[in-house]
Design goal:
This protein has 227 residues and is an alpha/beta fold. The protein is built from eight helices and five strands. The chain is globular, with a radius of gyration of 30 Å.
Length: 227
Amino acid sequence: MASNTRRSFLSNLGVAATAAGATFAAGSTGARAQGTTDARWQPARHPQDEWFDQLPGKHRFFFDTTTPEKLEDAIQFTGNYYGANRGVYGLENADLAVIVCMRHRSAPFAFNDAMWGKYGATLAKRAEFVDPKTKEAPKVNYFTPKAPAAPARARGLASLMNLGVQFAICNLSTRAIAGLIADATGQKTDDVYTEITANLIDHGRLVPAGIIAVNRAQERGYSITGG
């Protein structure tokens, strides 16, 4: 009797172990399947943003500027970035993909000297900026979009252009600037917009909004600095 009871117990124990093993194996298979599925979030891709990936470079950097002061900082630090990469790492300019974003109060400096000569008062008012020496609205782009024979600012925008830097210019700010100029001069906003967007600084590109450019640059592997 005791022997039969013992055999029955061992038999039931074997069935239970088999069932537990099957359950564990099924769970392990499910865990492995779940682990091999890449469910990580990935950013959506849009045709308007493809240009970020078309810039050559082993390293990607994006300077976000919203004020004249931040733009001046970006000009200086971009020069440092190229210089140190060249001097310490032996990298060429083409090894670096660098974008400077101009939005909000730095956006007025995305236009060339001709626009500053014509609309300097309104552009300076929008930027909340006056020439530090004259205390008046500049008659040319203060940050030198074109390099003169003997540049007054060794590290102006023209210097960055020579390095291959690209400029992302906020279209929302540009529209607002066109409206301000139109109000001040009695023109139509659309006409002013057409004029000023035909007179962007070299290497300048309109983006739907500066803040969107910041987001898309980060999603495409650019380090972000500034503000």
